[in-house]
Amino acid sequence: MKAAATSRQGPRGARLLSVDEHGTVAHHLAIDLPVLLHRGDLVVANDAATMPASLHGLHLPTGRPLEVRLAARRSLAGRDVARFTAVVLGAGDYLTPTEHRPLPPRLKPGDQLSLGRLQATVLDLLGHPRLVELRLSGASEEIWEGIARHGRPIQYAYVPEPLAIWDTWTSIAGRPVAFEAPSAGFALDWATLRAMRSRGVHFATITHAAGISSTGDPDLDALLPFDEPYEIPHSTAALIQETTHRGGRIVAVGTTVVRALEHAARGDGWVWPGTGIATNRITSATNLRVVDAIVSGLHERGSSHYELLRAFHTDRALERMTEHAEASGYMAHEFGDAVFVVARGVRLKADTTIEIRLPEMRASA
Amino acid sequence: MTDQTLQDLRVAITGGTSGLGRGLVGELVERGARVAFVARHRDDVQRTMLDFPTAIGIVGDVSRKEDVHPIAIQILGALDGLDVLVNNASSLGPVPLRPLADTACEDLELALATNLIGPFRLTKALLGALAGSARAGGGALVVNISSDAAVTPYENWGAYGASKAALRHLSHIWDAELAAEGIRIVSVDPGDMDTPLHTAAVPDADPSTLKRPETAAREIARLLAEMTRGSVLAEVGR
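^ inputs. structure came back:
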């Protein structure tokens, strides 16, 4: 599959390949997503905005250039932006494929980095010459200003034009806590949300700090995704509970939503509101307890995105989906086309025509 | 007063270092809101932060396309989301005021960039956060500061009046489109105030005939309390 080489922030012009609960594949336009949904379904998307997480600068002990890609942090809180896990690359920029980028200068704890108006200290090496724990200096407002003004969106060589921040924001983007775009959300625009609503489909969001998709190193890539903090609002947890109760389907927009919802439900099977850190991996071995269907981008076999789809359907069905996509020239990656995959065996169980009312819910401890 | 508390309401104000904007920063901080404000000049921002230490100052120019997302990132980073945006920053256009026939096209473009396109861009960048606030609590609000010059065709106020008229109409259309998302977009005319902008427009006006910006700020704070009560209650209950 070819990667889409220009940015696109909405569903206009994108295609959508669907795989239903029986494994039947069909072709659509992305703007027709609402037609594939039923009255009483609940669509859950990740409303994280993307921070410009690529910071170019200097390794002060050697004076050599490097690129820091912020990749993870402990929480979503705006005040908690001093410490990041980061991938550090040597000289060069995104036009060189990540796997061909040189290693950074040899880093050791205490090393100072100058990143535009930001100053960083290497706190720890995390078992790989490219992976470090960093502390950014200054008050949280100063750090936000430094990231906002000096940072560039993380991007890859298959999109040659430099991305602007707005290229990486979905229509529903809110708090800037993602390191790369939660790109399945590009399948939604405000007209799509309106069309869904008019069909009796409900909409809710979570906020999940989507991490980076590639580090250029197979050993590091094997660790992806890193632990990712998320927050599930009360209103979203209540809608999920009510939808499940009534037999509607929970449709996740993006792999991050699957990861967060299944993590939140790891205890008793119910999605509780509040914050958490997703440490789970979704694979063919995962028994999905919450999510019934997923909207996702197209990704290569073997990628973590593709692996996640194996929780939804048989390898045979996914293989058929990929063959269709390749034969019809679907575009891969974050600005490409989309898939809608309904988990094997999901069927409408109950009367979903009843209007959903939000029940009172208490926060979990 | 308790029914008009704005405790923990997350509010962003553009043009927050003078006139009505500065008055709003003070009034809303006083009522317990979490406030971020935006202005072009760092020294003005720092001075205002000294006067209102709990408010977060952000340096940026809403009329510049490349400033808008960095401003939005800093607002959302400082406040962890947003309930209310007040698009207050305004440009008078060319001063002294002059007839349209003597107005340079570039000056009209500048007025439109500050008074129409800038608020449009910033609102669009913050719409996801505002919609999130609405889903969580039942109400989010954008206040676009307007003027009687948006309605009445005053001679010599062409660049300002036309840009404010466009902003007012934009507000009404957007309000209709976003009602279903739980986001209200309102246009508010605060009246003629004793502000630097008014002095630049009408240098010989008698200040005693003009409204104090603090008075207008109190009126807008009351509007916020009325229109966001749902989200305020949700915040308190969180």
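The domain at 2-50+162-342 of chain A is CATH 3.40.1780.10 (QueA-like). Confidence is low (pLDDT under 50) at residues 349-365 of chain A.
thumbs up if we can close this ticket
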